[in-house]
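In the previous chapter we treated chains in isolation. Here, by contrast, the input contains three separate entities that must be folded as one system, with a combined length of 1001 residues.
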Amino acid sequence: MNSTSRLNTESLDLAYPGTDLIVSDLSLRVADGRITVLCGPNACGKSTLLRALARLLKPRRGAVRLDGQEIAALPTKEVATRLGLLPQSPSAPEGITVEDLVARGRFPHQRLLRQWGEEDENAVESALGMTHTQALRDRPVDELSGGQRQRVWIAMALAQETDILLLDEPTTYLDLAHRVDVLELLAELNESRSRTIVMVLHELNEACRYAHRIVAMREGRVEAEGPPSEVVTADLVRTVFDLDTVVIPDPVASTPLVIPEGGRLRRNTRGRPGGSGAGVDADRAARQASTER
Amino acid sequence: MRSDIAGGGPRSGRRPRWIPVRPARFPVSTRVRVRTLVLTIAASAAALVTMTWSLTLGSHELSPAEVARTLVGAPAEPGHAFIVNSVRLPRALTAALVGAALAVSGAVLQALVRNPLASPDVIGVNSGAGLVVVFTLVTALPAAVVPVGAFVGATVTAFVVYALTWRSGVSGTRLVLVGIGVNAVASALTTLLIVRYPVDRVSLAVWWQAGTLHGAEWADVTVLLVGAAVLLPVVLWFTRHAAVLQFGDDAARALGVRAEQARTALLVASAGFAALAVAAAGPIGFVALISPHIARMLAGPLTGGVLLFAAGIGACMLSAADLVARHAFPIALPVGVLTAAVGAPYFLFLLARTNRAR
Amino acid sequence: MTPAPAGASPRAGVRGRPFTGRRRAAGLAGAGCALVLVCFASLSIGSVPIAPGTAFDAVLAFDGSEEHIIVRDMRLSRTLVGLGVGAALGVAGGLMQAIARNPLAEPGILGVNAGAAFGIVSAVYLLGVVGPAGYVWFAFAGAAIAVLVVYLLGTTGGSTSSPVKLALAGVVVTMLLDAWTTLVLVFNQRTLDEVRFWLAGSLAGRDGVVLTHLAPLLLAGLVAALFAARQLNALSLGEQVASALGQRTARVRTMCGVVVVVLAGSAVAAAGPIGFVGLAVPHIARAISGPDYRWILAHGLLLGPLLLLGADIVGRVVARPAEIQVGIVTALAGAPFLIHLVRRGRLTSV
């Protein structure tokens, strides 16, 4: 599966003003029409990378390219018609209604005289429809539940009608049902409208379930990249998260299912499927030795 | 399944909240929120009624019909033309325009800083104008200098606040804090002048600082109109940016807003409107703070329509205050004193009502 | 009383510098030494310069000489008033920021200054009261009533007092009171001439009467504030966390509000509206000592008088033989410092 890539980076160095490099020499091709999930431990640079992909952060070195052009050289508004971003915690003005908020996603398409064409109206309607939020349209956003609010923000990003959609932890603070709900919604978007989706997710099993490709990061570098079934192994999880796990096939989707071992449990039980305590101890000893070296 | 959505119910037979405006023959499209439109029309009508009423009042009382005849150029008595056109009309128009300018300035600033307590006073406009004007008054410079001095003082102070706030961008919180500092300096210097000069000169300065429309003339109206003609398009254009900027800088940039550019333009326009107002009428409190609040409570977050609605409220409020200030008491009061008296109780009522609703 | 989190303050300071106990103690000791020096300077510097040794003698071994009389009758009471007012403003400012959880909150927001000005202007205009000693109780009553009204308006109907609503009510009431004050000053030149010096904020001419009237209130307020500091640490984590930690937040807020009224009301009654100290001192204290309110209030207790007396001395010196009112000097000196802190990003959130 050698897919095309409209959005890619080339030996990227990223840092905030006055800080050390957060991401160094990172090259990545975001596969078109696929769901790519960035994962890794806290502070591994995945959100920073996402910000750079969305042109919110200027690279110290290297470049982000969108359709072959360097993204830093493109006008802000033009980027916004091809690529949308939903930040981790956007703030809604007090009292704004759902429809109003979603309509503001049309900003990059509006011109001085053409502020509310039929295409704007249709985009907002279809965004509300796709996210099943039509019934909420007159409600103030402040009054919604966390899951509803997240859907509304996604609807806002959808109204922007970009082929590429970047999301920073879209499922944070949501309960299990709402997390699945949001992820199903994104998968549906990807499937029916072939949108390219890049998102940061913390929950590894959700990433395996919904991602076509996983980018595992650690300390500002890509440790592994590829389809979850090929990439996600106990070894990788150990390298990236410093955690001993057992990886078994997901009984529903047969994608990898990562189950942490946990020290306390291992002391109490013996002979779990998929590995032996002694083996893991040996691994840990080896890892310690390698870090000491 | 999606239990959180079911609560809304089916939406058949919904009254349209927005009317799309798309004339077939022009490449123009926009949409108008019904509620905002109705409210704006109501506020403008109220302002017009107040203005007309104020034209009838004075040492020589006129009937509304007489005022109307004079305005269309056919006065019942020749003396009416002078009374209405040269004395009362400029003052009524100045009141309405100053009120509208203050409201727009406040609305933009509150949206920008995302702080409901922000008003143009925050960026030093009033204190800067006050310093310059009090100086010209206590040192007995010619009276013609006062409005120019007020405008210069206001714009220079706003610029100083902005320049001191800029650090590879302007954050709302930093702006407010720097504004407090600069305001403190300007007010302290003003107090110094007030304490050190003879009391009869100081008395004039205190009068100006109370905010008054006394002596408003056509020149004031012209300046206000020209200023508004320049600044209003800027504000209306960037209002859409402001609406998105409220999502936070990341989300706004992702939607294609050049955040710093939009913020700068909006700040300049807000300061410009406030400077126009203070030059024409002195520092009038309350209108810039309260009008946007009322607009937001009744019509929702800032859009171009809500901005115009706020302007209508401001015009109405200051016209009414000036009317009362001139005619309700044995002596004419400075209107700035009255804006507080008119605006505060209403605002307190709204405050109490939102308290109860929670 | 339920336990507040003893070590609730994060140890990491601005830009990663830790606020160690040693650094805080050093800051406190430095401020204390500076304050002692400033007190002596305040006794010896003025239109008649007096040697520090002589000033010292005047306090401890009064011999009736002219210099000693100047020190005892004028400068000593002035210095003591400065100490009390400065401490009250510094501590009240810290309390306000904590209960409003807003870096811009200061006692003035609750209408303290406007209420006091209202009281005094009314007293001068209607009753013909003359002189700062006569002002005291009118100012205090005006301040207290203003705050009471603000508090009632800010909390009517609601179950909790939201800080924003309280601040909005304060702004509105301030404007109403200012409207009346302005009105009197515009039409009554006698009142303007009488109160304009008071309105600038000054320590001059405050004699023993002011001090004896207000000292008990000030002391009680300061002691109560220092006892409340522990509660503020929990409150600064937010309403919900504070409740979860077992704090009765409404009660703490109300108690602290009363203390603020006592402190700020006494300060404004003694010295007139001095607006800037209450705002700047807690920020400076926080920059030195970190987010622990026990330390912030302790620093405020020393930094407030330090700033106020320093400004008073400067005001006496720069325009000799005339004086510049201390309220003007604090603003002119403190504001650039505040702006500097803001620009350096040193104003951490509350």
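The longest helix of chain A spans residues 176-193. Chain A has two domains: 7-226, 233-293. Compare these points with the single-chain example from earlier in the chapter.
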